[in-house]
Amino acid sequence: MAKRLVRTSAPPSSEVSLTKQGNRIIAHIVNFQPQRRGKGAEYIEEAYPIVNISLEVRTEKEPKSVYLAPSKRTLEFGFKEGYVSCVVPEVLAHQIVVFELNG
What is the largest CA-CA distance in the chain? Predict the structure, then answer.
Protein backbone atom coordinates (compact mmCIF):
# COMPACT_ATOMS: atom_id res chain seq x y z
CA MET A 1 0.00 0.00 0.00
CA ALA A 2 1.22 3.47 -0.76
CA LYS A 3 -0.07 4.76 2.57
CA ARG A 4 0.09 2.14 5.29
CA LEU A 5 -2.80 1.86 7.75
CA VAL A 6 -0.48 1.33 10.73
CA ARG A 7 3.09 2.34 11.47
CA THR A 8 4.75 1.28 14.70
CA SER A 9 8.07 0.84 16.45
CA ALA A 10 6.90 -2.43 18.04
CA PRO A 11 9.33 -5.32 17.55
CA PRO A 12 8.68 -8.02 14.91
CA SER A 13 7.58 -10.42 17.67
CA SER A 14 4.45 -8.29 18.21
CA GLU A 15 1.28 -8.03 16.16
CA VAL A 16 -0.94 -4.99 15.60
CA SER A 17 -4.46 -5.29 14.21
CA LEU A 18 -7.21 -2.72 13.69
CA THR A 19 -10.99 -2.89 13.89
CA LYS A 20 -13.54 -0.18 13.30
CA GLN A 21 -16.52 0.09 15.62
CA GLY A 22 -18.86 2.99 14.88
CA ASN A 23 -16.84 6.18 15.43
CA ARG A 24 -13.93 4.32 16.99
CA ILE A 25 -10.84 2.68 15.60
CA ILE A 26 -9.49 0.04 17.96
CA ALA A 27 -5.88 -1.12 17.80
CA HIS A 28 -4.95 -4.42 19.42
CA ILE A 29 -1.27 -4.90 20.18
CA VAL A 30 -0.17 -8.43 21.06
CA ASN A 31 3.30 -9.03 22.47
CA PHE A 32 4.21 -12.63 21.64
CA GLN A 33 7.70 -13.93 22.42
CA PRO A 34 7.68 -17.72 22.25
CA GLN A 35 10.61 -19.90 23.18
CA ARG A 36 11.18 -23.09 21.22
CA ARG A 37 12.12 -26.12 23.27
CA GLY A 38 11.77 -28.93 20.82
CA LYS A 39 10.11 -29.75 17.55
CA GLY A 40 6.90 -27.81 17.06
CA ALA A 41 6.48 -26.80 20.70
CA GLU A 42 6.44 -23.16 21.73
CA TYR A 43 6.34 -22.04 25.34
CA ILE A 44 5.86 -18.72 27.04
CA GLU A 45 7.17 -18.97 30.59
CA GLU A 46 7.67 -15.28 31.27
CA ALA A 47 6.36 -12.31 29.38
CA TYR A 48 8.78 -9.46 28.78
CA PRO A 49 7.08 -6.09 28.38
CA ILE A 50 7.71 -3.82 25.44
CA VAL A 51 7.66 -0.14 26.38
CA ASN A 52 7.18 3.26 24.79
CA ILE A 53 5.92 1.97 21.46
CA SER A 54 5.15 4.60 18.86
CA LEU A 55 1.86 3.89 17.12
CA GLU A 56 0.53 5.76 14.09
CA VAL A 57 -2.87 4.98 12.59
CA ARG A 58 -4.21 6.46 9.36
CA THR A 59 -7.62 8.05 9.89
CA GLU A 60 -9.98 10.22 7.87
CA LYS A 61 -10.51 12.64 10.76
CA GLU A 62 -8.63 13.89 13.78
CA PRO A 63 -9.80 11.97 16.86
CA LYS A 64 -11.31 13.71 19.85
CA SER A 65 -9.49 11.34 22.21
CA VAL A 66 -7.08 8.41 22.38
CA TYR A 67 -7.06 6.08 25.37
CA LEU A 68 -6.15 2.62 26.62
CA ALA A 69 -8.93 0.13 27.21
CA PRO A 70 -10.34 -1.01 29.50
CA SER A 71 -8.57 1.36 31.93
CA LYS A 72 -9.62 4.51 29.97
CA ARG A 73 -6.13 5.96 30.59
CA THR A 74 -5.83 8.95 28.27
CA LEU A 75 -2.87 9.11 25.88
CA GLU A 76 -1.44 12.28 24.40
CA PHE A 77 -1.68 12.27 20.63
CA GLY A 78 -0.88 14.27 17.54
CA PHE A 79 -2.53 14.42 14.13
CA LYS A 80 -0.54 15.17 10.98
CA GLU A 81 -1.04 14.33 7.31
CA GLY A 82 -3.88 11.88 8.02
CA TYR A 83 -2.12 9.94 10.78
CA VAL A 84 -2.87 9.94 14.50
CA SER A 85 0.29 9.30 16.51
CA CYS A 86 0.71 8.31 20.15
CA VAL A 87 3.07 6.43 22.43
CA VAL A 88 1.83 3.28 24.13
CA PRO A 89 3.60 3.16 27.50
CA GLU A 90 3.70 -0.63 27.96
CA VAL A 91 2.46 -3.90 26.49
CA LEU A 92 2.95 -6.98 28.62
CA ALA A 93 0.85 -9.49 26.66
CA HIS A 94 -1.97 -7.48 25.09
CA GLN A 95 -2.98 -3.83 24.97
CA ILE A 96 -5.96 -2.07 23.41
CA VAL A 97 -5.74 1.51 22.14
CA VAL A 98 -8.98 3.29 21.24
CA PHE A 99 -9.08 6.21 18.80
CA GLU A 100 -12.40 7.99 19.41
CA LEU A 101 -13.25 9.92 16.24
CA ASN A 102 -15.38 13.04 15.99
CA GLY A 103 -18.96 12.67 14.74
Answer: 52
Q: What is the pTM of this model?
A: 0.85
Please give the residue range of the domain that contains residue 45.
6-101
The answer to whether 89 and 52 have CB atoms below 8 angstroms apart is: yes
Task: Determine which helix (DSSP H) or strand (DSSP E) holds 79, and give its type and residue range.
Answer: strand 77-80
| Distance, CA of 4 to CA of 16 (rounded, Å) | 13
Averaged pLDDT, groups of 10, the chain, 103 residues long: 88 92 95 66 69 95 96 97 96 95 82
Give me the pLDDT at residue 100, please: 97
Looking up residue 23, the CATH number of its domain turns out to be: 2.60.40.1180
Residue 77's H or E segment, with its range, is strand 77-80
Considering its fold, how many domains does the chain have in total?
Answer: 1
Cβ contact 92:55 at 8 Å = no
